[in-house]
Amino acid sequence: MQWTLVVPVKPLARAKSRLSDTADDGVRPHLALAFAQDTVAAALACPAVADVAVVTEDARAGRELAALGAGIVPDEPRKGLNAALAHAAAVVRSSRPGRPVATLNADLPALRPAELARVLEAAAQFPRAFLADAAAIGTTLLAAAPGQALRPAFGPDSRARHHASGAVELRLAAVDSVRQDVDTGDDLRAALALGVGPRTAAAAARLPGRDPVPGQ
């Protein structure tokens, strides 16, 4: 079974405000874009993924992620994350009604294609399923089988919200790269310890106290 993934990307100028203790206003947009690029590249390399649709209103992010092979869906509702995800899911399903759809966070710079494949294989056993983040509070992936509404409920305590919506929580070991999203400096350090993609490594090397990436 192959999946369509929907990846939401916030306007870069407003992204990753909680990283202010680690990166200043001039650096955070570059980090946010690097996270999304490494996430999308890893997702496209996953054998269980047929295609990736990025939903965004940010022109630069759209150009850069399209260059990697992602499709771009404009955030026409402009009513927040859940509305954007529901809209993008409807758009991709209009041309691919028989394919399962999953949303994947754009801030998974350590994402490993093999781990993502394991998560999607497990999700395929249920009408709707989700994976909690490393903090066990949020959600990094929400999946829906063909014919099932995605019903995203991201936001504060989204793990509990997705539970309450009837989605099954996937309890898998050894998929840390799919759980480790990056909102804070501690999150970034955890992702770097797992091993991030090349764009995030290059962007992080420019942060104070980080060693430069060879060749940068």
Question: How are the secondary structure elements laid out?
Answer:
Elements: E1 3-9, H1 28-44, E2 49-56, H2 59-67, E3 71-74, H3 81-95, E4 101-104, H4 113-123, E5 128-132, E6 139-144, H5 158-164, E7 168-169, H6 176-179, H7 185-194, H8 198-204
Parallel strand pairs: 1-2, 1-4, 2-3, 5-7
Antiparallel strand pairs: 4-6, 5-6
Helix pairs in contact: 1-8
Overview of this protein structure:
With 216 residues, the protein is an alpha/beta fold. The chain has a single domain, classed as Spore Coat Polysaccharide Biosynthesis Protein SpsA, Chain A (Alpha-Beta Complex). It is built from eight helices and seven strands; from the N terminus they run βαβαβαβαββαβααα. It has a seven-stranded mixed sheet with strand order 3-2-1-4-6-5-7, with helices on both faces. The radius of gyration is 16 Å and the shape is globular. The N and C termini lie far apart (39 Å). The model is unreliable at 212-216 (pLDDT under 50).
